[in-house]
Amino acid sequence: MKLLSFIFLILFMSNVNSSEKVFHDFTIESISGETINLSDYKSKVVLLVNTASKCGFTPQYSGLQKIYEKYRADGLVVLGVPTNDFNQELSKDSDVKEFCEIRFGVEFPMSSIQPIRGDNAHPIYKWIKSNVSVIGQPRWNFHKYLIGKDGRIINWFSSMTSPTSEGLVNQIETALYDD
C-alpha cells in the first residue's frame, strides 16, 4: 500500500511540475538569431501565432500588425512563430523576415522557423499541448493563443478567426485592461 501511495505521489508531483510552468518560463530563437526570453513579457499580454508565408491565411499578417500597432503601447505583444509543419513556409529565416517586412510591414517579434507539432515541437508548443484540449492545438497555420499577463493561456483561436475580429479584440482588451 505504501508503494502504491508513493507511486501515486510521484505521478501527481510530475504532473504538478509540468502544469506549473507558464509561458514566461521559455525562450525561443528570434528570426534574426537572438534569444527571445519570454520572461521579458511578464505583465504583458501575448498573442502567439504560428505563421506561414505561402498559406491562404497569410494575409492575416496585416491584421496582426494592425492590432500590434493599436495595443502595443498598452502591453500587447504579438509573437509570430513561422513553421513549415504544414509545408507552406519559406526555407530560410532571412527570406521569411524579408517577406513579412516588405509585403506586410511586420514589426512585431518573430521567431525563427520552428516545429510546432509532434515530438520535435518547440517546448512552448509542447507546453501548450499539455494545457489545452486536442481541439485547441494547431491544426493549421495562423492558430492563435492569447496568453495573459501571468503567463497562462486565456484562450485559443482557430485559423479562421481574423486577428481583428470583435471576439478576439474584446478578449485582448479584457486581458489588457481588467486586472
Plain-language structure description:
This protein is α+β, with helices and mostly antiparallel strands and 179 residues long. It has a single domain (27-177), classed as Glutaredoxin. Helices cover 36% and strands 16% of the residues. It has a four-stranded mixed beta sheet with strand order 4-3-5-6, with helices on one face. A two-stranded antiparallel ribbon has the order 1-2. Strand 1 and strand 2 form a beta hairpin. 30% of the residues are buried. Mean pLDDT is 90; it is low at 3-18.
- CATH architecture term: 3-Layer(aba) Sandwich
Count of beta strands: 6
Major sheet description: 4 strands, mixed
Q: What class, by secondary structure content?
A: alpha+beta
CATH superfamily: Glutaredoxin
Produce the secondary structure layout:
Blueprint: H1 2-20, E1 27-29, E2 35-37, E3 45-51, H2 60-71, E4 76-82, H3 93-104, H4 123-131, E5 144-147, E6 153-157, H5 166-177
Structure, briefly:
With 179 residues, the protein is an alpha+beta fold.
Keywords:
179 residues, alpha+beta, Glutaredoxin, four-stranded mixed sheet, 5 helices, 36% helix, 16% strand, disordered N terminus
